[in-house]
Specification:
single chain; 36% strand; Neuraminidase; globular; 5-stranded antiparallel sheet; 3 domains; alpha+beta; Transferase(Phosphotransferase), domain 1
């Protein structure tokens, strides 16, 4: 059908035709309600007449409309006027990628830039469960702001991408609903088939990996100006796709970075299992190549045919560069000599495909290199699974997880490099690098680094507050290794590193708490002695190797000469890596160094942004809320009683503090609630929805207060003042009592649970205490109970206790924390030790509580690697914070010969 200008489809007035395709005609139209121009696509009658197709189309169109992304053409509306079905989309000004490619290939920099944008759009859609199924240059629009990907998921929704034999004609498969000019049937047929994956041609269901095949074809064409697969007929084209390989990009366009050549070949593996497995991984490698990774301009090496290990794409993106580094390194160390290699080699390394480094920002280093430089240990996870300890050789692609290390963090090697220590689930443990039995050595609930001496002792930090501790490498008694200096107001010693004599060790002394206290200082401690020597003032972990101290200052990893006899630094600090990753809040840089000149350092963004979002009970992404920001690692999104807002602390890194913000969950707009210069690390709602309780250090550097604020930020009254870091958790349903976390000691090594009147009389009552830490209490909706977590049994478990006094019941059985109630009190949620959110039936009668059956809902790693969430009143949605994957995916830089760089300077 053809529509004349002035025709109305609902509120949309047709202005002029834009084009036509197999899925219908496209018009420029005016939205008379909002006064904006849009693109209206009218569907063919053979689709509209099929009720099943139309229902499926409307259902999947709703999913596509939720894809709010700058590189995805937005679907505004789906409508029906009489017997005419139509779509309303964002009107995009520009030219298609197909039209641009008709003029020739793109410059390599433009290929990378547009490729990242297209792939980021694919990644967002795939995470939402939407597969494009018709990615090709004609469905990519080039605008002033970048690439826009069109027709997301609609091929399937209309039934046009059905398998062979489904009744959908080949001709229909070839037509794009966004083509602005008619194409010949022959040209369209070949143009579409050239981007179809082998499994689609065989009639199998397309999935995300099919999109990645099409992406490989598009990238190939962008870089070379030629199609990856050609054919004079449909049969010859299919034969080409199924049985031949395209000429390497480097042969067609020699100046293209070899990293792009390898990436495209990884996308074009015939078997989906051998293909690169996620759009996110493709984006990371494109970003790395765009930034000029190692060997970016060197000739590309010939790749081996893909194997069934395709799910482990080379961990080292610059494979040729790193293998060369390994070869030179082993030449330098052959024969057992601890000599540095003869050449300086830089390479960027990434974890295996589908695996991401542990993201927790308040934990010790997620990676370590062995003293002899032959192995790298790192903590990573696959999908939403638990963090595991992985080990790999520097000179080969054999990264492997070690069984029994679930929850691992902070790896550190023994002096001989044969054993690796780590922290997991409240304990410090060890395991051979080849795997085997995991041995528990000591408690380590909130670790801050560890170091292993040649004499068989381990010095480690077990909490965020307190001194360093020591224990034998086989376990046993744990005793203090350092003493806090109260005159310097020290509250934490962390990140120890043994010097070569195995008796002296470096460590950082500082006050905990953002922006607080005297200048952080590096000391050298002495084993079995309280004596220590001041070395330098810097807010960083520090390591010794090859006569130098390595540390991070102002984002730069530097080396400074260090005399082992005088324990003093000399000379100037020499820059090694400019963009070293550093978390200022914890004075922790992510680097590790061997004794013979092998250095690994994570680079990239120092700030991990987090996205507030909704997920359903299956863990499916529903929507993002507002723009990403720096939601604090310990901050919990707290839903307002009516479910329309959330209160949430956001870090202010310039001041080293946090502010409490209100977030409108419908619009995503944020409003700052605390506008002073103090630290506000936590907040919770009053049940009337008009007031909020926040924590604040406005009472002084060492004194925190719990304050009641109106939602406009006005201070109504101070409820309680006490030790540092009071955390408001929950207000009773009648609005009379606040339950909060309070540290047992000034050093905040343990917390108990207290209550205080909302009237502000400052008289607190302890309701849960004893051994270990009790925290994160939540009143039940009827106020007769409170749920909390405690490590009194040796690991965190969730309990329910009667309020104000009475019985106590354990809810979780194998680890649990972060309890939350459903509004009717009939379901209780918590996070188990494998990061699953668990729903437990809750039965209460009188003063007794009973936990019913438990159901694991879904697995998730929140921002900072921590579970921070709230649940909607009906228990169907979960409000969570998720760290942006591009921020977590910082590459690791390998340098094999940094000592030669600093020699003589």
């Amino acid at each position: 059908m053809t529509l004349s200008p002035g025709t109305r489809l609902g509120p949309y007035e047709i202005l002029s035709p834009l084009g036509a395709g197999g899925m219908g005609e496209v018009y420029r139209a005016r939205d008379t309600r909002l006064g904006r121009d849009v693109a209206v696509k009218v569907l063919p009658k053979h689709l509209s007449a099929n009720p099943e197709v139309r229902t499926r189309f409307e259902r999947e169109a709703k999913t596509v409309s939720s894809l709010n992304h700058p590189n995805i053409c937005t679907l505004f509306d789906v409508g029906r006027e009489g017997d005419t079905d139509y779509l309303v989309m964002e009107l995009i000004e520009g030219e298609t990628l197909a039209a641009r490619l008709a003029k020739g290939p793109l410059p390599a920099s433009e290929v990378m830039k547009l490729g990242v944008q297209i792939t980021d759009a694919l990644d967002r859609a795939h995470r939402a469960g939407v597969v494009h199924r018709d990615l090709k240059p004609g469905n990519v629009m080039l605008t002033k702001s970048g690439a826009k990907l069109m027709d997301f998921g609609l091929a399937r929704a209309t039934g046009m991408a059905g398998p062979a034999g489904s009744g959908v004609s080949i001709g229909a498969l070839t037509q794009s609903p966004t083509v602005a000019q008619p194409l010949t049937a022959e040209g369209t047929l070949i143009g579409t088939f050239q981007y179809m994956a082998p499994e689609q041609l065989e009639g199998r269901e397309a999935d995300e990996r099919s999109d990645l095949w099409a992406l490989g074809c598009v990238l190939y064409e962008m870089a070379t100006g030629k199609r990856a697969f050609e054919g004079k007929s449909q049969a010859s084209l299919i034969t080409s796709i199924m049985g031949t390989e395209p000429a390497p990009i480097s042969q067609v366009t020699p100046m293209v970075p070899p990293a792009l050549d390898r990436l495209v070949r990884a996308c074009l593996a015939k078997d989906p299992a051998d293909r690169i497995q996620s759009a996110h991984d493709v984006k990371l490698q494109l970003q790395w190549a765009a930034e000029g990774g190692p060997a970016a301009g060197a000739p590309a090496a010939t790749a081996a045919p893909p194997t069934r290990r395709g799910s482990l794409v080379p961990w080292i993106v610059a494979a040729a560069g790193l293998l060369a580094a390994g070869a030179m390194f082993w030449q330098g160390t052959r024969g057992g000599h601890e000599e540095a290699p003869s050449h300086a080699v830089h390479a960027a390394i990434l974890p295996p495909s589908g695996v991401v480094y542990s993201s927790s920002t308040d934990r010790p280093l997620p990676l370590a290199v062995s003293p002899d430089g032959k192995l790298v240990a790192f903590c990573a996870r696959t999908g939403e699974g638990p963090d595991m300890l992985w080990v790999r050789s520097v000179d080969s692609n054999d990264a492997r997880p070690i069984a029994g290390t679930e929850g691992a963090q902070g790896p550190f090697f023994s002096a001989d490099g044969k054993t690796v220590g780590f922290f997991a689930r409240g304990k410090m443990k060890r395991v051979d690098t080849t795997g085997g039995a995991v041995i528990t050595l000591a408690d380590g609930g909130d670790p801050r680094g560890a170091t292993w001496s040649p004499n068989g002792w381990i010095v480690f930090g077990s909490t965020a507050y307190g001194p360093l501790w020591k224990v034998k490498e086989d376990g046993g008694a744990v005793t203090a290794a350092t003493v806090l200096d109260s005159t310097r107001e020290e509250s934490t010693h962390r990140y120890p590193c043994f010097l070569p004599d195995g008796r002296h060790f470096l460590y950082l002394a500082r006050r905990s708490g953002a922006g607080a206290g005297t200048e952080p200082t590096i000391f050298v401690g002495e084993f079995d002695s309280a004596k220590r020597t001041r070395v330098l003032e810097v807010a960083s972990n520090v390591a010794y190797a090859s006569g130098h101290l390595l540390y991070i200052r102002e984002g730069v990893l530097v080396a400074q000469r260090f005399d082992l006899s005088t324990l003093a630094v000399s000379g100037s600090a020499i820059p090694l890596i400019d963009d070293a990753r550093m978390d200022e809040r914890f004075s922790r840089g992510v680097f590790s160094v061997s004794t013979n000149g092998v250095l690994v350092c994570m680079t990239g963004k120092n700030q991990t942004r987090t996205q507030l979002q909704w997920q359903d009970r299956s863990g499916k992404w529903l929507s993002d809320i507002g723009e990403p920001t720096d939601y604090t690692y310990g901050g919990t999104p707290e839903l307002s009683p009516d479910g329309t807002q959330s209160v949430m602390p956001i870090a202010n890194r310039e001041r080293g503090t946090s502010d409490v913000w209100l977030v409108d969950l419908n619009s995503g707009r944020r409003h700052r609630l605390t506008v002073d210069a103090y630290d506000h690390p936590a907040a919770t709602w009053h049940p009337d929805g008009k007031r909020v309780v926040v924590s604040s250090n406005r009472g002084g550097e060492k004194i925190f207060s719990l304050d009641l604020l109106a939602v406009d930020g006005a201070l109504l009254r101070s409820l309680y003042r006490g030790a540092e870091y009071l955390w408001p958790r929950s207000v009773s349903p009648d609005g009379r009592v606040l339950i909060f976390d309070a540290p047992e000691t000034r050093l905040r090594e343990r917390f108990d649970i207290g209550t205080v009147s909302m009237a502000g009389d400052s008289n607190s009552t302890m309701v849960a205490g004893g051994e270990g830490t009790q925290s994160r209490a939540q009143f039940s909706p009827d106020g007769r109970f409170f749920a909390y977590d405690s490590d009194e049994s040796g690991q965190l478990e969730v309990y329910v206790a009667a309020y104000p006094v009475g019985g106590k019941w354990q809810v979780s059985q194998d680890g649990g924390s972060e309890p939350r109630w459903r509004q009717d009190g009939r379901e209780l949620y918590y996070v188990d030790r494998d990061n699953f959110i668990v729903a437990v039936e809750a039965h209460a009668g009188g003063s007794a509580f009973e936990a019913g059956s438990a159901t694991k809902l879904f697995q998730f790693h929140g921002a900072g690697g921590l579970w921070r969430y709230d649940v909607s009143a009906d228990g169907t949605r979960f409000l969570v914070t998720r760290a942006l994957q591009e921020d977590l995916a910082s590459p690791v830089t390998l340098i094999t010969d940094w000592p030669r760089k600093v020699a003589g300077r």
